[in-house]
Amino acid sequence: MSPWKNLCILELKLKINIKDLKDKVPDIIFRQGLDYFKDGRVKVQNTDNLAVMATVHGTYPYVVKLNVDGTSFSSTCTCPYKYVCKHAVAVALKVIEDQSTAEESNVVESTDWREYFERLIAIQQVDSEFSQEVRWKLIYIIHVTENYWNIKPVKVYMKKDGTYGRVQEPSFNELSAQNVFRTSGDLITISYLERLQSQQSTVYFRGRLETSYLKFGLDAGQIFNLLRTSELHIKNDDGTIGTRIRFGRKPWQLRFKLIAEENSYRFQPFFQRDNEEVIIDHTTNILTVNPIWFYHNGKLHQCVFPLSYSYIKSFVDEKLHIGVTKSEYESFISDYLAKLPIFPYVDFPAGIEVYEIREITENRLYIEEMDDQLVVSLAFMYENIEIAFSQSNDQYLQYDNKTKQIIRVHRDLEMEQIEREKVLDSGIVEDTPGLFYATFEDSLEWLFDGLPALAKSGFTIMGEESLVRFRVKRAKGDFGVNISSETDWFDIEVNLEFDGVPVSLSELKKALRANKKYIKLRDGSIARLPEKLIEKFNYIINFGKVEDNSIRFDNHHMTFVDKLLVEADHKKLDPMSQDKLKKLDTFEKIKTYPLPKNFKGELRDYQKAGYDWMNFLKEFSFGGLLADDMGLGKTIQALSLLQRWRRTIQNPQA
């Protein structure tokens, strides 16, 4: 046995009686639960022979558990209501619906031979399934007139030959009794009909189940979804039960046609299925909408149409006739039809050329600033037609006056989604599909990196040249240094500019002190400081003495200058600075310096190393500190160094 068959067995064993359900709760709770059930808010999680666990989406997702004992049940729910709540009612109705589905087979479109077999089956049911007490069956009578329609549940007496005898209008309690052959789904339908009846402006109530006269195009299509497994009959003019109404097996489509006449075009909606058409006008029996169900040739047909019924309502209620002269044709297409979402469902007559476009030819990003936000919108070009991603229609219609053609664009929604993902991956946040927003601070990184990457991948950027506050300068910073030296210090003059716009030392200092990696230039644009130089700029600002547009350093910072020069695009050094840097470039190790001739004493090896190191510091104008444990000879090292320096000053040739 397949898993599906096992599931069906479980569902059949888990039964709830709708009369017991209605007895458990106030009428208002039952109606609220019925609305939740009809809206599809119930999702069954687990079920077995004794219990069902489900989630009901209300104000919050509520978890409901029903424990079933026979035909009665108890419930728990995570909502605050202490008794059987509307969420539990909705779940119970879902269980009842599943019971009905398991008990009834799907209705198949009938042919002439079905009447014969159904009659035999009915006789068999009376003989084998109906006891002496159960001889009544619930059916529905539909009455369709020129101006209204209605539907009424009745119970009919089943004769042994399978025909119907007496007809009665039952009360709800009578139907809940055990002497009427029905499905549990029928009781949900009757509850729906009661609710529908209460919403009508005029109702004549005689204590029986009735519905008032209903308008065509009633927003109650759910009723025929519920009745798919029930027995429906047409009402004859003399009030007797007529032939059985079948459900059309294949759904219809709704199309609009522009029909060429002698000097004009007629615009008319149709129901269409395969090669069959039904005109939609005041004679069309459209019983309900959401979904659309219409009565035609003894059958109830469903129509798939995702748009509002208002687009065809006037053709039915007001006997609307639309005729378009050939001189009005261009305006009709461009100024009216193209602005409505129905044009994908319009068929044009032979002789009118429709140019179909299906491929994206260009991706576009529109950039604009709105107060303190950057606004980015995504659009696509289909040849010469631009369509924003945010537009909901999957087709676009336009009349081209030059070519005298109707241009219909079939959007490549799959490719549009791929291109949209590229924009999302670039680092900007989407607010609504196809529309992106960023604050000033959040937008800078995207403007410098994300947007150029999108442009490189093929996006056309529109509107960036009009930005003011968000205008960025992506040119690489041109960095130069001028260095001049004296004996104990040197000056660094920093030159930084972006595309010819200079940055002063004070502007640079202000940006770095605020931990900014972006700087506003004098022309109002924003530049990004070279990341590899930010650390070095911070060193200059923090360890040098700022004077106008130059910074003074002590000689012992000379090694930093060497690193700074590596990053400079251009540099200029005076002779002394060149000499100092040349020494650094050629330096390999500390050389051995001779002791002064008049030095009377002897230095140990480690003392001689200290003496050489201090001479090295002197030669390269570095500062240093001699430190070791007490008693290791720092004094004699210092005296020997001073003696050498003294003789050098008195006699440089010594």
Give a written overview of the molecule.
It is a single chain. With 654 residues, the chain is α+β, with helices and mostly antiparallel strands. The strands form six sheets. Strands 5, 6, 7, 8, 9, 10, 11, 12, 13, 14, 15, 16, 17 and 18 form a 14-stranded mixed sheet that branches. Strands 20, 21, 22, 25, 26 and 27 form a six-stranded mixed sheet that branches. Strands 29, 30, 31, 34, 35 and 36 form a six-stranded mixed sheet that branches. A hairpin with a 5-residue loop joins strand 9 (232-235) and strand 10. The longest helix has 18 residues, at 86-103. It is elongated, with a radius of gyration of 45 Å. It starts with a helix and ends with a helix.
Task: Quickly list its features.
alpha+beta; 6-stranded mixed beta sheet; 654 residues; 32% helix; 14-stranded mixed beta sheet; single chain
